[in-house]
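Q: Structure for this?
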Amino acid sequence: MEIFQIFKIIFGLIVSGVILFFLIQYSGTYTLLQKDILKTNIMKSFIDNARGVYLTGNPIKFTGFSRAQLSLSLDSSREPPAVRFDLGSFQPNVPIFFVHDKELFIDRNSLDHGWWRFYFAEAMPKTEIIFSPAYNSPETWDTLENTVRLLPNSAGFEPKITYSLCSGNDVFRMCESAACESDEFLDFYTSYKSSIFITCTATFSGNYRLVTISNNCANTGEVCVNPVEKNIYIDTKTLPYADYLDIVSVIIGAQNTISGEDLYNYKQKVFQAEAKLAAKIMYERALSHVQNPAVSDECKNAYSTQASILLRISTQPTQNLLEQSKLNYYQELINNGCDYLL
Amino acid sequence: MASGQSMVIMIVFVIMIFGGLAVFLLSISQTVSQKEYHNLYVHNLLLSVMRTDTGYTDPNCKLVSDTLGCAFTQSTEYKCGGSGEPCIELANGTLTNYMDRFELVKKNFRYLFIAKPETGVRIDPETGEPLVVRIGDKSLETARIDKLKTVYIIPKFLATGPYNIVVELFLAEK
Amino acid sequence: MRLRKRLKAQHEIMEYVILTLFIVIIIIGFVFFLSGWNITQLQLDKEKARQDRALFIMKYFLSSPLFTKENSVFDDTKLDAFRSLPNECTELGKIIGENWFAEIETFNGAKWEMCTQNKNYSAYIVPANVYRKFTDKAELGTLKVGVYG
């Protein structure tokens, strides 16, 4: 073999080795970069989809989280609140109550206060929500019905959010032995109102939420709502509730990574911010009607009453004041033709 | 020398491929946001124009959509508010004015506005032809180009039953 | 003869080295291209994110009960009320973030400007109605929403 041949072989090996080394190192970095880009795109897609549902009211199925492993948390201390993931955070800028799972159903719902509506998006995977109405009173059934009305309605969509009742070891799945979706559940559950229910002791598999409604929440499982004290019990925590969205936020989160308590605190933050601003705007608006000579005396009085309630809501939006303002809005303003229905 | 030449040619090819790839990728990345915005624009344009007050309190002529509905369902002698303009003239005038204003807002778009009954035909007594309101660039209706379209239905009822007026708005870049 | 042979050998070695050099340059060029492409993509993504945010804020304004009577119909009394608040931008900023502006204008000349600043922006404009509450009339106009930065 000529020396030149040997030289070519050795030189070739050295150069190939160097090139291969850099290529492997670069593709390693590039692969990691692509993984990071994928995670960011998934998060962005989730936020965009949630915003879309919030703005249009059209529910959708979201499967983006199945493409990569993400660890999520809620940062309610920021203004507006943010959703943190492995590489940073996104601010949804719309209220979104969600559980992190591979396949999610995203829906929109609202709290109607007459002069203002608080819209929010909610996202859950396939879940059976079992209610155990273990306190025999009208408040229990009111709480149950109003809570179900605010939970996702997956009719015509996947994955399904279904509802059933439980007493002791008996589970009542009212739709041909299967758990019902929201609309059918609300139709069928009334036939059980006269029955006496006891705390649920049945066991469940798959993705579920057990919600006990009772005047005694000791040893009652996952989530317990006490309609007498107006408290929600989850783990060892006691959370007072002012409206049914407080209950819904705890049910959705339950004991997940973004827990019921996290979503509850998030709800307080986003709701208070919007309620205060809405009240301030409507207060100034009510004043402009009181001061306008073209407005009738009847309407001026109605707006004046509304203004005084709204002024108080703008600093402390309590449920009591919100209910007063809603009543005044419908009885005085709408009925007298002073304002329009939202 | 021959292998040197072919090496240079190969290098030039590689540079051309990279450049072409970059240009192609850049060009496809720009389009997504604009489509969503344009769809929102055309939808809102038709909706907003239809819901605008004309100034008349006569319920047949209160909104632009009412006026259009009146043009297809009332007699040609009908005048808005009793002594105002006939519905078809008011509709044509108002729509032309608004579309011209929006041409100033979005200078790079041309539009075509068409209104006609969903089913059946209303004969224009002046021309003897089916009455169809067409305002704007009439070539857009049949032009085979990338155009946006949105539809608005004006529900009307006659003695014979429902008689909807279909309003279409086409928008295309100039 | 020996000289010619040596020159030929040197020539072959040089050709070989230059060939290898070109291949290495192409590979390095490819690496630079990929990095440059990623940087361009990130810049495009940043601009797209700004446009997406402007579009989101636009849709938010068009559908929010804080400003509208119904979808895409603003209530002039609500717009006036919002503008009369002190720190209205900070308040709304707690909900939808900051660094944006909105302008609603009717063809009759009425105008509402919110949170405008003297900075570069990316904006969208869309037709909308403004309901004049005290005259019960809907006027035609536009909503312009932009994001700064």
